[in-house]
Amino acid sequence: MKDSKNLVIGMLCAVLCIMAVAYAAFTTTLNINGTATISSSWSVTIPAADGIQCTTQAAAGGSTTGLSASGRADGGTSATFTMAFVQPGDSATCTVKIHNGGTLNAKVSDVQITGNDDTGAIRFSVQGIDNTKTLDAGADLTFTVTGTYESSTTSQPGAGDKTKSLTVTPIFVQNLG
Question: Which of 58, 124, 65 is nearest to 91 (CA)?
């Protein structure tokens, strides 16, 4: 009986030692050291060389003399348009290309339009860009800006008010979706 008591005490001591070692192993702090490198880039711009193309359309039977449209980019995502109209029915359309030269997808969060001082006779519209558009890395997105000298105009603007400028700035953010 004495031997069996010693055997039980020996086993209990062994179990106690195993439990102490296991507890020490599980409560040890594990430190992992390392470095990570992110190699992404952000580059959403309107190319200065070919980012904006404008066309004009004279009113039916009208002359194109004095009718003009131009656009220029600031090297970012802003574009300024100047349109000169002659008579009701004239229109001008500028097509704008935005290029995502970065490695991250972009999404339009807002479109800011300044200078759209609607005279009632001359109206601007921006189409093809909104906050549902995603611009994938390496891809292009186009939108149009149209100015129209309304043919139904009853109150004509003064001579100096037939030339209007408008700036359109799409605001892009990283597309996390």
Answer: 58
